[in-house]
Amino acid sequence: MTIESVESADTMRGQMIDRLAEMQRLGEETVRAFKLVPRHAFLPDIPLERVYSGNVIPTRFNDKGHAISSSSEVAVMTAMVEALKVEAGQRILEIGAGTGYNAAVLAELVGEHGRVITLDIDAEIAEEATGRLESCGYGRAVVHVGDGWEGWPADAPYDRIELTASAFDLSPAWSEQLTDGGVLVAPFQFRPNAMAILALRKDGSSFRSSAVLPGGFMPLRGIGSPRDETRILGEWRLTTSQDIDEERIAALLRTRPTVELAEGVSWASAALLAVLYPDSITVQKDEHPTVAMGIVDPGSEGLAVIEWGGGTIAGPRPLLVGLGEPAVVERLRVRIAELSHRTWGDVAVHATPRGATRPAGDIVFQRDHYSFGLSVRGRAA
Fold first, then answer.
1. pLDDT per residue as tens digits for the range 30-39
2. Rounded distance, CA 329 to CA 303, Å?
3. Strand, coil or helix: what is 366?
4. Using CA atoms in the order 86, 88, 90, 93, what is the torsion angle rounded to 10 degrees?
5. 172: alpha, beta or left, given left = phi > 0 and alpha = psi -120 to 50?
6. I want to staple 148 with a disulfide (CB 3.0 to 4.6 A). Which of 82, 95, 180, 369 is the partner?
7. All residues at 6 or more sequence positions from 352 whose CB lies less than 8 Å from its CB, including other chains
8. How far apart are CA 346 and CA 266, in angstroms?
9. Contact indicator for 220, 165 with CB cutoff of 8 Å
10. Contact partners, residue 231, CB within 8 Å, separation at least 6
11. Which of these, 195, 373, 154, lies nearest to 280 by C-alpha position?
């Protein structure tokens, strides 16, 4: 890069982080680390304007053209780093090396006396991340090839563990390798396509959330990969944990919908709805980036979803879309009104080993290794 382009990158990086610091009220150390690490050096073939937009940037694809690795949205990365509560001198395990950018940020935070181990199941991704970390002066962040579900016992114990891929359960290896009182930050899939980012503090063999944030990631690959519960109905991709009449739903999707503006709905509140209710559903059309979230009638007689449309000038507008039985739309309106008074800050998660004491919470999600209790402050049971 020329001197002018380096200066331009530095300016754009500073502006990006200053915006995020104001929006998210980031701590001084987080701001310092993200300002020091040049994101563009980990995305060498991407235009600077796109790099410092802060958007997610897919970097590797499978043979079907689906992204399997990316540089995550910077706003999500800063939120996860804040939730980790990293301190100088700590030992951190990152699962999902990606470009190496996040590991470089973690290396800045732990300093010369700390240690960052980052794993990736893909040897080519690990090799590229190693090269970029070393060329940027972060060779102390060590990249290994391995299945993240098994952690990396050779350098355990760790004060912090961070996953940059979504999990369906907690690996016993993560608990074994994390110090008591240590923090695990992981995107977690509660229902098909309904996830949140959990910051969990270890308490003996159990975990309690210190923060729950909206956000989604590509699935963990390897042993702990979440089950793909996507249903393909022609040009439509649906996910739901409820039994549905697929033929009936396919017929509904061919009918003319009712459409109205949905007031007071954010993506975060729609994601919260998808997590809380077993009749939730997500709908996506082939080649379309937007995922609509809502609910489906128990008898598959109707569905109602929130989708985002519009907006080159006015910005995306949430729309309430109904198909079939009108009562489903009314039920979704009621839930939207209920969730307008709730945020992800009202959510708490308690995880206990499967077979141990039932976790505290209004809703319990059972997995092979852990049970997860989820409660929402002020929500009627």
1. 999 999 999 9
2. 7
3. strand
4. 50
5. alpha
6. 95
7. 205, 206, 358, 359, 370, 371, 373
8. 16
9. yes
10. 237, 238, 239, 240, 244, 246
11. 195
Place of tokens 């249903």: 231
Q: How many angstroms separate the CA atoms of 190 and 197, rounded?
A: 10
The whole-model pTM stands at 0.90
Return contacts of 359-362, CB within 8 angstroms, 24+ apart. Answer: 359/206
Q: Which of 5, 8, 53, 69 is catalytic?
A: 69
How many other C-beta atoms lie within 10 A of the C-beta of residue 174? 27
Predicted local distance difference test score (pLDDT) of residue 378: 63
27: tokens are 């701590």
pLDDT digits (tens, 9 = 90+) for 173-209: 999 999 999 999 999 999 876 889 999 999 999 999 9
Distance between CA atoms of residues 317 and 273, nearest Å: 18
**Contact present, 92 and 160 (Cβ < 8 Å):** yes
Q: Where are the alpha helices (DSSP H) in 37-142?
A: 48-51, 74-84, 101-110, 123-135
Grouping H, G, I as helix, E, B as strand and the rest as coil, residue 13 is helix
Closest listed residue to residue 98, CA positions, set 63, 65, 74 = 74
Query: Cα separation of 223 and 140, whole Å?
Result: 28
Q: Residue 167 has which token pair?
A: 């999990």
- Those residues whose C-beta lies under 8 Å from the C-beta of residue 85, and which sit 6 or more positions away, are 160, 183, 210
- The single-letter code of the amino acid at 76 is V
The residue type found at 130 is T
Active site (annotated) includes residue 371: no
The conformation of residue 325, written as its DSSP 8-state character, comes to: -
Structure tokens at 358: 């039932």
Q: How many residues does the chain have?
A: 381
Neighbours of 108 (CB within 10 A): 22
Residue with tokens 């092979």: 368
pLDDT in tens, 260-276: 988 778 878 888 888 88
Show the tokens assigned to 252. 């509904």
